[in-house]
Design goal:
- This protein is α/β, with parallel strands linked by helices and 330 residues long.
- It has ten helices and ten strands.
- It folds into two domains: 243 residues, Rossmann fold, CATH 3.40.50; 57 residues, no CATH class.
- Helices cover 48% and strands 13% of the residues.
- It starts with 20 loop residues before the first strand and ends with a helix.
Length: 330
């Protein structure tokens, strides 16, 4: 007997490998998957302007990257002893305006360069609600704890999102003919919107993505992370204490499903080899000066070099260099 609904995940026709360059944009769920890709040694860039939630703000950031925009102090505002940008997460905020701009532009340059080279753009939408400034109607990515009276809040319909994104995707594909885009909807529940409004918001995102994927079927795909958590895991034990964010166990399960759907057999085997070896590399005995530990470290170095020999595109040069230096101290 089957006591759960297994959400089908179609295998990608062009699967993701360690040879690919990847850029991730979107909610903190994108950062969770991004960190797993990084830990498995994929060539990844994550949110060059910080965490983003709504499709309008993500489109604004992509416009910045496509147009190679650079910020100046005039693009910032001052509040609470800090300089902020309405298009950036608070991790970019700084007491020094020049340092704030320098950090912003460094990430924009890196993100723009990666977007031109990327094989995959992975985008996670969190909500269809946006906040706009009263004074000019501009959608902001972050309110930076300013008074609510400065903003209007509204839910964007799927048709309006599509109108904003269709010309942007055309420009992306023209700029980078090899680019493919994967969309996901974050399983994080925005309960501050209200339970019903959260469902309406997610529905608009799903309708919007579905239309994009039908219009660009050869180069846009959808991965059902939202459905996996809500329909397959379907239990509060897979949410954290706040009942909004998936637990680490849930994210690991989504990673397993993602791996099955998106990675080739060679990539999955390499991931498993690396997981075992990374665990060994992180092992530290109580007495590292023993001959036994030296032999253990030598075996790890041998395994690292074998992996590099077998998978020349798998960049573990730092690990090899670090272990060689460590062995010289024993």
């Amino acid at each position: 007997m089957e006591f759960r609904t297994v959400v089908p995940c179609e295998k990608l026709q062009q699967q993701i490998s360690h040879r690919d360059e990847i850029l991730l944009l979107g909610s903190c769920f994108a950062e969770n998957i991004g960190r797993l890709l990084v830990s498995h040694k994929f060539n990844v860039g994550i949110n060059p302007t910080g965490i983003l939630y709504n499709p309008y703000s993500i489109a604004d950031v992509l416009d910045l990257l496509v147009n190679n925009v650079r910020f100046t102090v005039d693009d910032l505002f001052h509040s609470g002893n800090l300089w902020h940008s309405f298009l950036h997460h608070s991790r970019f905020s700084h007491t020094d305006a020049e340092l704030c701009v320098r950090q912003i532009n460094r990430e924009l340059i890196s993100g723009a360069e990666r977007l031109v080279r990327a094989s995959w753009l992975l985008i996670t939408f969190g909500t269809a609600y946006v906040y706009t400034l009263h004074e000019n109607g501009r959608v902001v990515a972050n309110c930076h704890k300013l008074p609510a009276s400065l903003f209007d809040r509204r839910r964007i319909m799927s048709e309006e999102f599509f109108f904003r994104w269709e010309p942007l995707i055309d420009r992306l594909f023209k700029m980078n003919p090899a680019l493919r885009i994967m969309f996901t909807v974050s399983p994080i529940r925005h309960l501050k919107d209200g339970a019903h409004d959260n469902q309406l918001s997610k529905s608009e995102l799903l309708l919007f993505i579905d239309k994009l994927c039908r219009c660009y079927s050869e180069r846009c795909v959808y991965f059902p992370s939202y459905e996996i958590v809500l329909d397959e895991l379907r239990d509060y034990r897979f949410y954290d204490a706040g009942m909004t964010h998936p637990t680490s166990q849930a994210i690991e399960y989504i990673w397993e499903r993602f791996s099955e759907s998106c990675f080739s057999e060679e990539t999955r085997i390499l991931n498993l080899e690396w997981e075992r070896l990374e665990k060994a590399l992180n092992h530290r005995p109580l007495t590292p000066d023993t001959e036994t530990y030296r032999n253990f470290a030598m075996q790890n170095l041998f395994k690292l070099k074998k992996i590099r020999e077998k998978y020349s595109y798998f960049d573990i040069s730092k690990e090899i260099e670090s272990l060689e230096l460590f062995l010289k101290t024993l």
